[in-house]
Amino acid sequence: MTVTPIQQPLIQLNGVTKTLKGQGEPRPILSGVDLTVRAGESVAILGRSGSGKSTLLSLIGLFDRPDGGQYLLHGADITRVPERRAARLRSQEFGFVFQRFFLLKHLTAAQNVAMALVNGQGWLARRKRRARVLAALEQVGIAHLAKHRPARLSGGEQQRVAIARALVRQPRILLADEPTGALDTETGALVIDVLHAATDRGCGLILVTHDHAHANRMGRVVRLRDGLLVPDRAGVAV
Amino acid sequence: MALTGRLRSAVVIGGQGIRARKLRTFLSMISLFLGVLAIVAVQASSVLANRALLADIEMNEGKDGTVVVGVPPGTESVSAVLDLVTGHPGAVATTSTGAIIGEPGLTPVNPGGVPLRYADQGGPAMKMVCDGRGNCYSEVSDDKPPPRGNAVELLVVGVTGDIRQFRPFQLEAGSWLDFGGQPSMSPRLVLNREAAEAFTRYQLPAEMTIGGSGSQPSPGSPHPTPRVVGAVHDGSSQPTAYVRADELLRWLPETSNAAQSMGILMTPQASASITPALRAKLGPELAGQIYTHTVDSRERIGGQLDMMKWIFYGMAALVLLIGVAGILNVGLATVGERVEEFALRRAVGTPRLLLAGIVLAETLIIGLLTAAAAIAVGVVGLEAAGQVFGANRPTLQNVEFPWEAGVAGVAAGLVAGVLGGLFPAIRAARIPIATVMRA
């Protein structure tokens, strides 16, 4: 199914700010970020280490709340959404892929994927759950490894299990934080293929990466600089 | 529906956590086991002691609510009581007297009907005396005793019906008295455990001297030949024989005032009709000597074991607290190790409350498993104690594990699970979700 990205934005950030308050001086990290992502669209975010890429991703994924600005999801303002609703939205709307795979070593690949289904947000019967898990693993090409524990999987396979976990709830937006950082170039390219394939099914993708080659495969590339998102390629709107 | 989903999720994830950390689960169970076992043991002991005490009181005095009436002795009283009570389904009259079974003319081995453990120990001659309220006791006799021989003095209690509806004697051999048909000339006796022991220990000729209690039988005391038909445990340490009242009274000399005590055991309903009728029959003088009281065995024993029980509960609670500290320690360490897992679970949409529920579910499952183990050990231990010590301690024979102890064990396991899991659960719920981003 091809989705034309001319419709209501999935997410829309308007002048979002965030200041990190640690033990030292408060450090402004985002100074008014504007970003719009539509269904089926893929966006790569580049930037130096410490520039705030992961912080921006954590705001989009509702891990944290912005200090200022506005965050719209399907047109609804969720800037100050309470934690209970945020948990529901994380479950229903977002899929997350991290640099480290965060697979639980005592669970099989299938059980790791099922983790996203057994999260207190509704209950699926075991048979339905298994079908969804196998479909997700199939989607990333490792259904035959369903019963393997992480220790028996390669890095690329582990990351694909993590992607299956992100996809199993059929999210509207995939958030990937340097998903190829721990992989070699070839395996990394395969992982990007898998992520990119999700956009073909209408899923929005936001990829945080240092790798220009991977970034250039996205529909849009932006750079986080001095707390602001700027186009990385001439003529590409933020 | 949402709640069911969360509960199921908590149990599923908690089960995965336990399976992933079997050794820690086992160590947590060990730290908790002694505490839960202590609670189970105290509760079981308390229930069993209560039952034993209650059974003892019921056998000696009567079941809770039984109305006991003491009637002044005398031919007139006996006649009035028998008229009112004989054949009444809710009342049994008792009349007791002393008797000696064995060789006539000898001093019994237990003068005054004292328990057999005091037999053959010398000392002053004793004789049995019963008062108007039905209480019989031994007192020193001034008479010079004849030589001792194979004779045993015992209390003979004549009953007009099955007294076991009020005093639940345990039949140990033979049968209970048959109240159908005509009274026999040869009194049929049911011995209590102490009297049966006397028949086992001594070679007693089957000759009974009734009413001639003490070391010197009164002249002309009747000498029927009794038949022993059964043996019961009646909770009394005094040698006692139960006999049909009509068979006993046939042999009691009317002039000797030998029916030394007279009493009635009855239900409150029967008492409502019998007691006023008895007072009317006896006349104002004798009616004034009637003594009435209602057995309140449960209330009486209520306070007897309380102090001891609470002391033991306190000690058990301390042991349980040590177990809780152990499970708490393991729980906190485990949450520390699982920070990333919990942060990841929050990232995929698990609410904070469910995260806390997962940790609590794990400790509750551990608490329940421990409780099951402690109860199983309690059941097996009680069975083993019954087999090893049952011969010397009859209260341990054929004792069933009290369900109250099982409930106490499960409750202790759950409480320990909650106490031990609460702080780790709160800590798990507070893990910042951004942990996964910074890792």
From TrEMBL, chain A:
<dbReference type="InterPro" id="IPR015854">
    <property type="entry name" value="ABC_transpr_LolD-like"/>
</dbReference>
<dbReference type="InterPro" id="IPR027417">
    <property type="entry name" value="P-loop_NTPase"/>
</dbReference>
<dbReference type="InterPro" id="IPR017911">
    <property type="entry name" value="MacB-like_ATP-bd"/>
</dbReference>
<dbReference type="InterPro" id="IPR003439">
    <property type="entry name" value="ABC_transporter-like_ATP-bd"/>
</dbReference>
<keyword id="KW-0547">Nucleotide-binding</keyword>
<dbReference type="InterPro" id="IPR017871">
    <property type="entry name" value="ABC_transporter-like_CS"/>
</dbReference>
<dbReference type="GO" id="GO:0098796">
    <property type="term" value="C:membrane protein complex"/>
</dbReference>
<dbReference type="GO" id="GO:0022857">
    <property type="term" value="F:transmembrane transporter activity"/>
</dbReference>
<protein>
    <submittedName>
        <fullName>Putative ABC transport system ATP-binding protein</fullName>
    </submittedName>
</protein>
<dbReference type="GO" id="GO:0005524">
    <property type="term" value="F:ATP binding"/>
</dbReference>
<dbReference type="GO" id="GO:0016887">
    <property type="term" value="F:ATP hydrolysis activity"/>
</dbReference>
<keyword id="KW-0813">Transport</keyword>
<dbReference type="InterPro" id="IPR003593">
    <property type="entry name" value="AAA+_ATPase"/>
</dbReference>
<dbReference type="Pfam" id="PF00005">
    <property type="entry name" value="ABC_tran"/>
</dbReference>
<feature type="domain" description="ABC transporter">
    <location>
        <begin position="11"/>
        <end position="238"/>
    </location>
</feature>
<keyword id="KW-0067">ATP-binding</keyword>
<dbReference type="GO" id="GO:0005886">
    <property type="term" value="C:plasma membrane"/>
</dbReference>
From TrEMBL, chain B:
<keyword id="KW-0472">Membrane</keyword>
<keyword id="KW-1003">Cell membrane</keyword>
<feature type="transmembrane region" description="Helical">
    <location>
        <begin position="310"/>
        <end position="332"/>
    </location>
</feature>
<dbReference type="InterPro" id="IPR003838">
    <property type="entry name" value="ABC3_permease_C"/>
</dbReference>
<dbReference type="InterPro" id="IPR050250">
    <property type="entry name" value="Macrolide_Exporter_MacB"/>
</dbReference>
<dbReference type="GO" id="GO:0022857">
    <property type="term" value="F:transmembrane transporter activity"/>
</dbReference>
<keyword id="KW-0812">Transmembrane</keyword>
<feature type="transmembrane region" description="Helical">
    <location>
        <begin position="353"/>
        <end position="381"/>
    </location>
</feature>
<feature type="domain" description="ABC3 transporter permease C-terminal">
    <location>
        <begin position="315"/>
        <end position="433"/>
    </location>
</feature>
<dbReference type="Pfam" id="PF02687">
    <property type="entry name" value="FtsX"/>
</dbReference>
<comment type="similarity">
    <text>Belongs to the ABC-4 integral membrane protein family.</text>
</comment>
<protein>
    <submittedName>
        <fullName>Putative ABC transport system permease protein</fullName>
    </submittedName>
</protein>
<feature type="transmembrane region" description="Helical">
    <location>
        <begin position="26"/>
        <end position="49"/>
    </location>
</feature>
<feature type="transmembrane region" description="Helical">
    <location>
        <begin position="401"/>
        <end position="423"/>
    </location>
</feature>
<keyword id="KW-1133">Transmembrane helix</keyword>
<dbReference type="GO" id="GO:0005886">
    <property type="term" value="C:plasma membrane"/>
</dbReference>
